[in-house]
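Quick question, first post here. What does this chain look like in 3D?
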Amino acid sequence: MASMNHSSGSEMHNMDHNHTNMAMMHMTFFWGSNAQILFSGWPGTRAGMYALALIFVFVLSVLVEWLSHGQLIKPGASNVKAGLVQTLMHAIRVGLAYIVMLAIMSFNVGILLVAVAGHAIGFLLFGSRVFKHSEMPPYVKTSDLPPMSC
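> Answer (accepted):
Ran it through. Tokens below.
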């Protein structure tokens, strides 16, 4: 019969001890300020750092909407210059959107709520008609970038 390799008691104790020191990764949504968002150990267990993480994700979400609906290219700009600016804006927008997505993947409900709120406020400010000064015909382009597609 083949011999079986048994671990000694001290090795098993060390494995158990290492598992208890590892940060818990949630695989379901949870509510609480003890979370890891984007970086190992951040925001940690302090409520102030968690509030900073919430503000950070909110601002990133608003920036994604601003880039999605903003017009930074002046009419009459050369095609090459406009194309380079559009490409840079697109890369920044996608990068920020991925950072927001990774933050949501922490499965923290607070992060999810502030990300959705940031996108909603950003759309209200930059994409909706609420703050537009004049009625625009539907054929007028309102953004330098195409809409985000999921």
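Residues 13 and 19 are 10 Å apart (CA to CA).
The longest helix spans residues 79-104.
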